[in-house]
């Protein structure tokens, strides 16, 4: 089975049901903007997408509503709606790091992004996506569309160079693209960042765009481009964006040598590389790592539970961040991922 055929088998995406977010238009012909500081809904219903994996990292997809407990500010809530359906609509933002840091493996990263697009934009009306590239500046390269080829055309023209404005890219994703009718009720909003998390060029800050993403009910995933044996100063920032919005980060290049014994004792002029850069073995290991990361991200998007509840407390203000905790008491070893909280709206 070809890689693309295999990935197509895991494409169906789960929905994020949520209050709709207003769309502002400054003047005729102006680019639409998402209202980041006010939800259009007047009901304080909270929507929580949840992913559950076992102690081996495998998705757990057969849980029932009774298996979950949801806490809002440490108060157990009554779950009013529960779903584990698949094939739900989704809008995916592909945010690609074009900085110099990714020059060495650029072609492989391009291929990984192409696989993500082919997988998550299968040509059906309920699946839409857009592309933002970021180096010294962030730019919306392909606006929201259901046509994968329109996005792929832009990906193929991308080239690395310059700094990294990751935070500005997240900001644009939340404010400067065309919305699909029904967002984020149906379809739900996803961002996939392909990069190492570093930022040295943004006008926006980490805290600013994290709050914006949380207010816009965006779930962020990362496909890290940090190479084996190296670290990135921005890695913790990518992890924070992902984990606090209910997503996670994949590290496809970190296990290149996991099946190679004694690689540290294999000296060469360029370093201790058992799989030399530029060789078939190295390229194969990189490709396999990226393929697995793409499959894991798409698998996670398609294997989520959706829960809704109305908080017991209604005297809350929009600016106050309320913490959420989701537990599965019957499975204490399970890993539960959900957004860490929300900003309520009061009319």
Describe how the helices and strands are arranged.
Elements: H1 3-8, E1 21-24, E2 33-39, E3 46-53, E4 69-72, E5 75-76, E6 79-83, E7 90-97, H2 106-120, E8 127-134, E9 138-145, H3 148-157, H4 166-175, E10 188-195, H5 206-215, E11 218-224, H6 235-243, E12 249-250, H7 280-302, E13 305-309, E14 322-327, E15 335-338, E16 341-342
Parallel strand pairs: 7-8, 7-10, 10-11, 11-12
Antiparallel strand pairs: 1-2, 3-13, 3-15, 4-5, 4-14, 6-13, 8-9, 14-16
Descriptive tags:
6-stranded mixed sheet, 25% strand, 7 helices, Rossmann fold, 2 domains, 4-stranded antiparallel sheet, alpha/beta, single chain
Mind explaining what this structure looks like?
It contains seven helices and 16 strands. The protein is an alpha/beta fold and 347 residues long. Mean pLDDT is 78; it is low at 1-43 and 257-281. Strand 11, helix 6 (235-243) and strand 12 (249-250) form a beta-alpha-beta unit. It folds into two domains: 3-86 and 304-342, no CATH class; 90-302, Rossmann fold, CATH 3.40.50. Strands 9-8-7-10-11-12 form a six-stranded mixed beta sheet, sandwiched between helices. Strands 6-13-3-15 form a four-stranded antiparallel beta sheet, with no helix packed on it. It has a four-stranded antiparallel beta sheet with strand order 5-4-14-16, with no helix packed on it. The termini are far apart.
């Amino acid at each position: 089975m070809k890689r693309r055929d295999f990935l197509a088998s895991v494409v169906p995406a789960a929905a994020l049901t949520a209050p709709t977010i207003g769309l502002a238009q400054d003047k005729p012909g102006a680019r639409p903007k998402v209202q980041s500081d006010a939800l259009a809904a007047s009901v304080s219903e909270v929507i929580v997408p949840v992913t559950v994996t076992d102690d081996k990292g495998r998705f757990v997809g057969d849980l029932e509503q009774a298996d979950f407990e949801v806490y809002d500010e440490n108060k157990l809530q009554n779950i009013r709606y529960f779903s584990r359906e698949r094939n739900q609509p989704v809008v995916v933002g592909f945010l690609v790091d074009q900085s110099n840091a990714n020059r060495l493996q650029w072609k492989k990263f391009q291929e990984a992004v192409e696989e993500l697009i082919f997988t998550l934009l299968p040509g059906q009306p309920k699946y839409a996506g857009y592309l933002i590239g970021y180096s010294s500046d962030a730019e919306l390269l392909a606006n929201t569309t259901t046509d994968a080829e329109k996005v792929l055309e832009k990906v193929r023209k991308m080239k690395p160079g310059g700094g990294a404005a990751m935070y500005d890219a997240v900001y644009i994703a939340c404010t400067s693209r065309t919305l699909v009718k029904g967002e984020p009720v149906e379809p739900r909003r996803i961002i996939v960042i392909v990069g190492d998390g570093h930022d040295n060029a943004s006008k926006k800050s980490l805290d600013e765009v994290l709050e914006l993403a949380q207010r816009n009910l965006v779930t962020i995933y990362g496909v890290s481009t940090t190479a084996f044996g190296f670290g990135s100063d921005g890695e913790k920032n990518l992890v924070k964006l992902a984990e606090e919005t209910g997503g996670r980060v994949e590290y496809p290049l970190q296990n290149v040598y996991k099946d190679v014994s004694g690689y540290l004792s294999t000296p060469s002029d360029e370093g201790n590389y058992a799989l030399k850069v530029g060789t078939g073995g190295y390229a194969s290991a990189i490709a396999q790592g990226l393929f697995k990361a793409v499959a894991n991200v798409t698998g996670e998007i398609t294997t989520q539970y959706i829960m809704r509840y109305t908080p017991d407390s209604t005297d809350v203000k929009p600016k106050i961040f309320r913490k959420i905790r989701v537990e599965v008491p019957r499975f204490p070893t399970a890993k539960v991922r959900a957004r860490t909280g929300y900003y309520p709206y009061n009319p």
